[in-house]
Amino acid sequence: MIRNIVILTGAGVSAESGIDTFRDAGGQGGQGLWEQHRVEDVATPEAFARDPDLVLRFYDMRRAAIQTKQPNAAHAALARLDAAWPGRLLIVTQNVDDLHERAGARRVLHMHGEHLLAWCTACDVRSPWTGPLLDRPPCPACGTRALRPDVVWFGEVPYRMDAIHAALRDADLFVSIGTSGAVYPAAGFVRLARDLGARTLELNLEASQGSRWFHESRLGPATELVPAWVDRLLAQD
Ligand code: OAD
Predict the structure, then answer these.
(1) Which DSSP letter does residue 64 get?
(2) Interatomic CA distance for residues 41 and 20, integer angstroms
(3) 109 Cβ partners below 8 Å, 6+ apart?
(4) How many degrees, rounded to 5, is the angle at CA 115 between CA 110 and CA 121?
């Protein structure tokens, strides 16, 4: 019987909302973000130290863009599951957009941070943030002009790994949605969950780097696969 569920989401869940994925065309006919920008130029602590304006401009554009997008049917289905599921449930997202929350999901953990938070490197406070950071605004908490995007860069440790591991230990079902399985530690969650006894299911547009680790992979767009999976799960309960 399934009681506890961990759901890992990646850029593919937001692709049909018009947000670029990182490594492919995302079904939108565009290019993956990392084909348009070098990771080393915009998504590492070294890049921020070397050329902060370039990094801040990049994240200012991304922060502005996500605010023009809307949650899609996959986000809505996951929010419906979150509201209805009586057991433990955790949506661990690698996404830095807020579309899970805007769809109404509550049990969401952003392991790679959030576009809509600014992190003060002077006082360590995170503040809600919707505007630009390029003009070095003062931190709302301490006034220091030392804000950075609250996004985990390559070479930094993802957030709340203890809580994620605790959820994986308890999981009866681990579901991965819209992620390429290219970036660790998230890419390793399937093996961990499986070793700990969970059933594992992948929902993705195409076979991913981690597909072979799942008990089952279903291929197709998230807006079709996720609502169908949620409907069946809730009907079984
Ligand atoms: P990727 O861009 O690596 O992978 C997106 C996955 O979603 C691919 O496997 C696509 O096939 C799939 N996909 C695309 N459109 C889809 C759709 N409509 N429905 C279902 N699946 C679809 O994105 P992530 O796996 O999320 O980290 O990337 C992981 C991390 O790498 C990101 O969080 C980011 C990035 O560098 C950091 O910045 C730290």
Answers:
(1) H
(2) 18
(3) 90, 91, 92, 93, 159, 160, 163, 164
(4) 90
Among 42, 94, 223, which is best to mutate for testing ligand 1, by the most ligand atoms less than 8 A from CB?
Answer: 94
Residue in 112, 115, 165, 215 annotated catalytic: 112
Tell me: the pLDDT tens digits for 67-115?
999 999 999 999 999 999 999 999 999 999 999 999 999 999 999 999 9
Q: For residue 101, how many C-alpha atoms fall within 13 Å in the half-sphere facing its CB? A: 13
Nearest ligand 1 atom to the CA of 180 is 9
Instruction: Examine the residue annotation and report whether 215 is marked as an active-site residue of this protein.
Output: no
The model carries a pTM of 0.95
CA pair distance 127, 181, nearest whole angstrom:
30
Q: What is the pLDDT of residue 236?
A: 87
**132 preceded by a cis bond (ω within 30 of 0):** no
Residue with tokens 């953990």: 109
Between the CA of 21 and the centroid of ligand 1 the distance, in Å, is 5
- Atom 22 (ligand 1): residue with closest C-alpha? 12
pLDDT digits (tens, 9 = 90+) for 114-127: 999 999 999 999 99
Side-chain-side CA neighbours of 112 within 13 Å: the count stands at 20
Beta bridge partners of 126: 119
Q: What is the DSSP letter of 156?
A: S
Alpha helices in the chain (DSSP H): 12-15, 33-36, 39-42, 45-50, 52-66, 73-84, 99-103, 161-170, 189-195, 222-236
Helix (H) or strand (E) holding 5: strand 5-9
Query: How much distance in Å is there from the Cα of 232 to the middle of ligand 1?
Result: 25
